[in-house]
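help with these tokens:
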Amino acid sequence: MKTLTILIPALNEEASLPQLRQRLERAFEQIADAVRPEYIILDNRSEDGTPKLAEQFCADNPAWKYVRYSRNFGYHNSLACGFDIATGDALIVVAGDLQEPPELIPQMVGLWQQGFDVVYGVLDQRNDDTPFKTVGAKIFYPLINAISASPLPPNATDFRLISRRVIDVVRNMREPDRYLRGLIHWTGFNQTSFVYNRDPRAHGKSTAGVWYSTKWAANAIISFSNLPLRIASYFGLMAMCLSAAATIYFVVVKFYPPSWMPVPPTGTTAIIVLLLFAIGLNAFFLGIIGEYVGRIYHQGKQRPLYVIDRTINIDCTR
């Protein structure tokens, strides 16, 4: 019988985990003749009762496993660990906040059994999102699809099933600045989608604010396109052309002033404004270049994507 791994990224999900466990185990009862479960809680250094609950789950049922990191390594690196230790023939990422309905797992398994390697969820509506996230999504997906070689389906989420051969490909991608959703779509293979509605967050508040969302979008664009670097080159070329045209203009006005040509402004105000604009533009594009160079620097250090503090029911020697 095949094994299906459920990865549960968790950060202070004490209030949600008991209900999530019940719903997951009920979902697997419907497909008990097809797959057996492996549940892995990926604890990004929770400060509430999440570790104690995880210990209880693991003691009650050996199918439940637990990983606690030495610190919070972030959502994407947390999932990288899950990909490394998952033993299943496929895996599904289920958020620990109860926003992804586990009742859809049998449907996802059915599509997997039809031969699809990636089965990803697409939001029907974004009712639970803030206006910033709603508008941001409408801008982000057309932009990333216009500049990236591997387009992303609009409103696709991380709630997805991934087959073993996709898992193995993604495991070999050890880049520290990860955009997992893009990496999975980049692999290709047979992919399909299903539409669902995300449930409201059952407990607490999301820590993904405006800054996190902006950083996430910038990471996706930089990870899958060098267009920002090209834009810097285009602006540089345009500035050179404008500078050459301005030079010709000032020379003509100075030595051969036609009556119909306006006289350029005198004094230092115009020069200061243009100079400050040029300096600001250079600093902006230098920052873009620095972002790419910084990623090369981080990659070159080859530090591990995560450090494990302790585990339960997991053999870390393999």
Q: What stands out?
A: The CA atoms of residues 9 and 79 lie 7 Å apart. Strands lie at 2-10, 35-43, 64-69, 90-93, 118-123, 156-163, 191-196, 308-312. Residues 227-301 form one domain. The mean pLDDT is 80.
